[in-house]
């Protein structure tokens, strides 16, 4: 027998199954949506995200503006650089860069006012940083070019000044050479032995002192370059002297003997001389250079005199200190002629002193040399003060000779004054120029 169920019970059962399916579908849909990364934000989160984006956009805008300003500065620097020297292409390129950047900034301003900024913050900031760095690099390159141009200009000025200095030195040397040349001896060209007088000797003496001073200046420069203590050297030679010329004493030694007594024959004096022979020798020597003479007369008395005086004046320790070796000394000792400026100056000095003695031996009256002793009383008849000041009676005390700078000469009754440094009695240092 079948059991008959009521219809209401069947409907209720079907509705329950349907509701359960709907719940299951919604649950599965929620899981699928969650697994796909879809989230539903509430209104508060939406407002916060919008504010953060606005701030990011503003930061990007400011970064873009700063990058634009840097670009304009770089273009302006390039514009200035192109003015000197004038470069039309660079000027136009820099001008166009300024115009383009101003237009871009103007467009940003328009978009900002209309609130129509369409910027990707991250990309915009990154591009702005790249643009700013490129502009800075360009500015630095322009600055480097500008500094390099200044360096080149200064180097050109230095080269020009060096050339000017070289020209001045060459001109001074040419003047000095003219002063020391035979042209200064025009008064001796047609001079005869019978017309010789003390004025001729004094004139040539002044000329002979020039190469002496030139050599002493060169020697002092070499001492300074070798870091010598000049004050200590001066005090060793002449205690309490402020300045000295050590060659003045030794270069004239032996002047009272023919050929400066290079053979050490003390018995030979001026009165045994042949005047005309020495006068002709003097006239021949005055037109030659020491190198020319030594080339043709390597074993002459002058060659022996030059060798003896160099070895006497320039000590071996001094030469080694000044030049780092004894090459010049060895060459001179073996009869050679060093080509150095130092020895050339020394040879010129010795040549003039040698010629001066030849002239002295040409006089009928004997010409003798004298040197004033240290601490001797100053006398204007025999002495001349090298300070250039008046050496009359001093209110501070009595004047005494510090040392002789240039010896004096006697020619009969004529006296050529000795040049001396003087000091006051009781004074710790002599007068100086």
UniProtKB/TrEMBL annotation:
Domain DUF641 as annotated: residue spans: 54-178
Entry superkingdom: Eukaryota
Residue runs in coiled coils: 130-164
Ranges of residues in domain GIL1/IRKI C-terminal: 369-421
Keywords: Coiled coil
One GO term of the biological process aspect: negative gravitropism
InterPro entries on file: DUF641_pln (IPR006943), GIL1-like (IPR040225), GIL1_IRKI_C (IPR056813)
Keyword Electron transport found: no
Protein name: Uncharacterized protein
Organism: Arachis hypogaea (Peanut)
